[in-house]
């Protein structure tokens, strides 16, 4: 893939349109609740400013459904960024139009403007050409540093790029491609994938693609319930996909034929519901009829940790249970700590809840790479061509 880095682009005194992923959670008082995504983009932003760019930053925030909504304004994000950079960040009052055009036109070398939420315009998610052309008119150079949205063909991630002569990826995007790309090539073995989350249907593509690369797959979260039932287990009131049992059996057979170990939970933590104050450890193949599995059990957590300790390459995507509820967080946190306890091992965490878990466990700095894109990282590993990356190819 021939994609240039921002380090290879001429930025001085030029309008640089920087697509970032500043879709951050906000506090009730409309401050930034978690600035991780903003901080991840700061090296790219600072590089552009050091080189004298006239920087136009653009992102979406939330799901305003194509209409302006003050609840999803970029104002708190612009305020946070201004403080982080110790310089003014001028926020346009719209993502595109006369107001945005004037804000961009007024930029001077080293200046920063931010467009209002891109999804305030219905043409963003629809990838409409008129909006794509309008956004492109604000740019001499296009840089995408939003890996978390690279799997979406939107106006700001794909449509506008063909109307800008120079294009490239930011430092964050470059790091994502480097680390995730390593998992697609030759790696040190054993190579273990840990896959969790709610639905088998959401992860079948990546599971199938991993079969040809890994030595073992450890399955947790609610998706494990479907596999357990496919093997004859009684799962009580646990969340599972009855219509995917045949696919689960087929996957287990393919894994067996290829010599890939699939390690399912041996025990589970079950309770009447997610608001329960505590759970009960039960056999993974025999969950009581009135209970639901909400986390992997301690025996399973130890088995997963033992396998991680023997691995040389590990990819993790998806929690082991309802980890946002304290009584059901132990399994997910155990995996995070096991990853952090490795030495000289390539450990890659695939965004979303898994990334939140390593942060919560306080071990983020001991992970080789934490992806900023959950869905994007999975599609990348499936071998799918991401629209946001494909658009940057020269």
Compute the CA-based radius of gyration.
Answer: 22 Å
Spans of 5+ residues with little confidence (pLDDT < 50)?
A: none
CATH superfamily of the largest domain: Phosphoglycerate kinase, N-terminal domain
Structural class: alpha/beta
Order of helices and strands: EHEHEHEHHEHEHEHEHHEEEEHEHEHEHH
**Strand tally, please?**
15
Q: End-to-end distance, in Å?
A: 9 Å
Q: Can you tell me the CATH architecture of the largest domain?
A: 3-Layer(aba) Sandwich
Q: Give the CATH class of the largest domain.
A: Alpha Beta
Query: Helical element count?
Result: 15
Q: Which fold does the CATH topology of the largest domain refer to?
A: Rossmann fold
**If you average the pLDDT, what whole number results?**
95
Strand percentage, roughly? 15-25%
Helix share, percent? 25-40%
Number of domains: 2
Question: Overview of this structure, please?
Answer:
The protein is built from 15 helices and 15 strands. Strand 13 (313-317), helix 12 and strand 14 form a beta-alpha-beta unit. The chain has helices spanning 36-50, 75-85, 98-105, 122-125, 129-136, 155-159, 171-184, 200-211, 223-230, 245-258, 298-310, 330-340, 352-360, 374-382, 387-390, and strands at 15-19, 54-58, 90-91, 112-114, 141-144, 166-169, 191-195, 216-219, 261-263, 267-271, 280-283, 292-296, 313-317, 346-349, 369-370. The strands form three sheets. Strands 3-4-2-1-5-6 form a six-stranded parallel β-sheet. The protein has 394 residues and is of the alpha/beta class.
